[in-house]
Amino acid sequence: MEPPRPPSAPSPPDVRAPGADPGTRDVPAVFDEQLERSLGAGRRRRAGAIALGVPAALLVAAAVVGIGAFAFRGGAMGGAASGAQVHRTTSSPAAGETKARVEAEPSPPAGITPSTKVYIPKRGTGKFTRPEGADKTFGRGGRLMRYMVEVEGGLRQDPAEFAREVDRILAHRRGWTASGRVSFRRVDSAPYDFVVRLASPGTTDKLCAAYGLDTEGKVNCAGGKEVVVNLRRWLLLTPYYKGKPGDYHALTINHEVGHRLGYGHATCPGKGRPAPVMQQQIFGLKGCVANPWPYDSKGRFITGPAVP
């Protein structure tokens, strides 16, 4: 039987037009007190608005409070770009998409503690560094996706090491390049299709708030062309990947990049089978086995029934 083919994914937009680099906007070291208080509320905000172009008619759609859903916000991709400052400033592409995706994982169960002491500051410096070593291409043929990697200062994390980890994941033979439909190239200037940022919990909250999401200092998010990886989650992992940092890191990057490629969520296809990388595995494996890769060792796409 012919192996299952991945669902058709829309080609990413052409993002080569000049514009303002989201990395040049400033994130203040001291955050707004009202925002800071709201982060302890233990919930995420989902908000959106639709303005009707009719005089005296304005409809505002506001939102759903809940855990672990995702929201679409109208407007240009990256139009609500978050504030951050990078050491190397460049021109950035104008957005070409009509919708921006915002997504976050739910808070993990209590009682997860690292086996060794780790340094997780509440806030970093708010300034991001792009490590050298760009212009590496992974995969052959298909749509070329350009990406940048940035690490916030003050985290005691090596930007070059984080970039190598992201590179390793995107270059893996069971990663997204296995389809032959996409390849990746790390760059340090525009044009780029997405940027992966490692940030402190406080800066993650600030960046994700630009997309209407309260990440509570605990979780990751993705919106526009940004994938924001929370240092807390990166180091403490989740219950199903306890003791397996490499696998959890792969799941995080592959899941969010999968959305950037146009894939939606899937769920477990059957007991004992590998969980699709597009499954929100932190909610539970639902009978599947933990799996951080989109393809199996034979090059077959791992998927399951679609879910919202």
Automatic annotation (TrEMBL):
Annotated InterPro entries: DUF3152
Source organism's superkingdom? Bacteria
Residues forming the DUF3152 domain are 120-286
- Keyword Transmembrane listed? The answer is yes
Where is region (Disordered) located?
1-28, 87-135
Q: What keywords does the record list, in alphabetical order?
A: Membrane, Transmembrane, Transmembrane helix
- Membrane-spanning segments: 47-72
The Pro residues compositionally biased stretches are 1-15
This chain belongs to which protein, by name? DUF3152 domain-containing protein
Q: Does the keyword Transmembrane apply?
A: yes
